[in-house]
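Exam prep: given the inputs below (a chain plus zinc ion), describe the expected output before reading on.
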Amino acid sequence: MLQDIDYPISVQFDFDEGAFSPVKTRSDRRVSDLKMMFHDQDAVQRALAAGDPLVYQILYHPFATSKSDMALGVSRIFPGRIGDEYYMTKGHIHERDDQPEIYFCVKGEGYLLLQTAGGEFRAERWTPGTISHIPPMWAHRVVNTGSDMLVFVASYHLSAGHDYRLIEAKGFRQMLVERDGKPTFVDNGRW
Ligand code: PAN
Ligand code: ZN
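Solution:
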């Protein structure tokens, strides 16, 4: 029996737009919201002075009932770079150590970066249609290395919690930068 449901149960995804509706909340992340994540701090200052561009948006819809609570998030990462480093999400690890997540790349191209607190690192190449499972206790970040918007759908439990401290402190072991016009992995000197 359906009761205590926060309607609507369904939302409609538009593949051309890379967005669904209705949206409960939309958050914008600008360079100023993730300035410590980029390695080239001079380039960060130039971007801030040039109007603090939008890096990504998160469209969010909680599906909450009295007995369960899944979250749907769609992230839309714009194409661009700060210096030579591609636009990306901040990246976080879930506060609860038993909480995984599913990511589904629907548009664009890039990489999913995964990393444990101990520094084990993985990168998965993404094209439209790639569906990735993020295991519990792995930090996750998505990098847009393409020339169009990268859009992915995320589904996770509302109680997972987001802890940004580990990634704010040191970042991921490797960064994605443009070299000779191509996305290239380079070691992050903070590790
Ligand atoms: C996603 C992320 C979203 C934005 O919904 O929250 O892609 O990335 P940051 O939270 O790292 O800025 C998710 O992984 N939720 O758990
Ligand atoms: Zn997550």
